[in-house]
Each structure stands twice: as structure tokens, then as C-alpha cells.
Amino acid sequence: MTAVQTLTYAQAGALALHQAMRDDPAVVAVGEDLGRGGVFGQYRGLQQEFGAGRVIDTPISEANIMGAAVGMALAGLRPVVELRVIDFALCAMDEIVNQAAKNRFMFGGQGRVPLVARLPIGIWSASAAQHSQSLEAWFAHLPGLVVATPATPQDNFSLLKASLASGDPVIYMEHKELWGESGEVDTTLEVPLGRAATLRTGADLTLVTWSRGVAPALAALQSPELAGASVEVIDLRTLWPWDQAAVHASAARTGRLLVVHEAVQVAGFGAEVAASTAEATGCRVARLGAPRIPVGYADVLEQESRLSPEKIARAARTLLDRPR
After folding, report:
1. CA-closest candidate to residue 18, choices 47, 39, 57, 58
2. Which of 63, 206, 218, 281 is 20 to 30 A from 252 in CA distance terms?
3. Domain 4-186: what homologous superfamily?
4. Predicted structure pTM score
């Protein structure tokens, strides 16, 4: 198998898990419909190769799935927990918040919970309010959890492998509308948790985003509104730990920071990035997120919650027009 392959986002995740299961018999997967490949094909072929004892189909009970996985982890396994979409993870919050996140601290490190919970985030076209949420700020707020938000097939491969090796509970947030996106994946490339990627360099404004925010942010650079502007684009890749050093250094140079995310803007993780960076550098800050409304089923309502290159370009232009 060549080191560089063209894979979809879903295939990249499946390959990362396949390699981890091949290399470590303690890695197991647990969740609904995994034997059929998962909702988005991110487990395709794994049960056929590794058997139903390691790729485990479960009843429809998120609390049971997560509770069992915490027990598996404490007993020495390294479970990958599939909760289909983040909206369903709300049924397993006690197991995530009070068991997985706190165990290592409460018991003085005698036990660890090395699990990866795959909680796909974001708007899912025409799927409405209960299947389109971006709740990453909830989990970044909780001590004891790592939070990863891959935006590309390469990062979905490399960050999933890093998450499986971390030894702590990782909330792993793939985006529901990225599964079919294709790109080159170098299977030898390691991406450490907590390291951002600078996708474009610039001198006038720092634009920070993650997950599904990356593509429209890059597209916004082609807008006539940003003609002549030099914009640096940073993909955080992980929200906890997040790469404060990279963001602070960039904003100190440009003097302006715009944080963009698909999640509701009110109390979103962008507020943490903006506040931290303003405190460290004194730069001008602005945020762009969704309005505080449920995602609508009708397309005209759904578009109100979506990021677009036009929205991002307008927000960037407004910040650029403010004096430093």
C-alpha cells in the first residue's frame, strides 16, 4: 500500500481505525450498525476483518454504549465509541461528563479512560434541529476531555490515530457533511493533538476556524470585498488543547483576529479564542457564528445557520476597516 492515497474523509477514518486495530488487539469499536459500515461508511469492512467481538453492534441506547465503553477502557481496552451524530450523545452525557472525563483525576491516576468518542457535528442538509447541532463548546469546557475537529481527509486519518494513542478520553468530532470530501492522505504523516495548521499566510488579519468552517473561509479570500487584503487562515484542528501559541503569534503580527465557526455564536468556542488572544496581544477581535436559533428544516431557514464565503468576507472586511 502506497503512503499517499486519495481517500474520502470517511475512508481516511476507516483506514486509521483499521491500522490501529491491526496493530493493537486492545482497540475495539462499539456502537450501532457498525457491522453494516456505520451511517457514513466510516467502519466499512472492519467487522468482516476483525469479527463481531471487536467491532461490536449494540442496542439503541447511547447511555449503555458509553457506559460500557468507559468500563472497557478502565479494564484495559481502547474503545472507539460510535454515537452516530452528536445530537444523540446528549443521552450519554452523564457517562461522558461524570465518568470518562473525571476518572483519572478523582482516583489519583489509578485508572485511565483511553477511549475515542466519535460524535459527528454540524449541519446535515435537510435534517433539521435535532440532527444538525455543533456542540463542541460544551465538551471543550469540561476538564479531562480532549476535543478534536478534523477538517480534511488527511487530518481525519492523522488526528484519529493521534487520538487513539493519547491515553485520555477524546471527543472526536467529524463533520456530517465532510464524509464524501476527497483529498490526498499521507499515511506516514503524524499530526499531534494541539497543533494548528496555517493554511494561508497574511499580514493584515488572522482568521481562525475549524471543521466545516475551513472551506468557506478559504473561499472567502477570493471575494472582491477582500481584494488587496492579506489574510492569514489558521485551522485549529483541535479545540482542546488548542494552539494558543500559533494564534497569539499570528494575531500579534496582524493586529486583528476574526474567529469563524458554524456553531451558535453565543458562548461558542470562538469566544474563548477571541478573549484569550485579545488578553495576550491587545489585537482587535470579532466573531462570526450562527444566530441563536435551532437549525431549520426549510432550506431558507437552514441557510441562516450556515457559514458562507460571503458572510465571512463581510465580517473580515468590517474588521479590516476598523483601525488597529
Report:
1. 47
2. 218
3. Thiamin diphosphate (ThDP)-binding fold, Pyr/PP domains (3.40.50.970)
4. 0.96
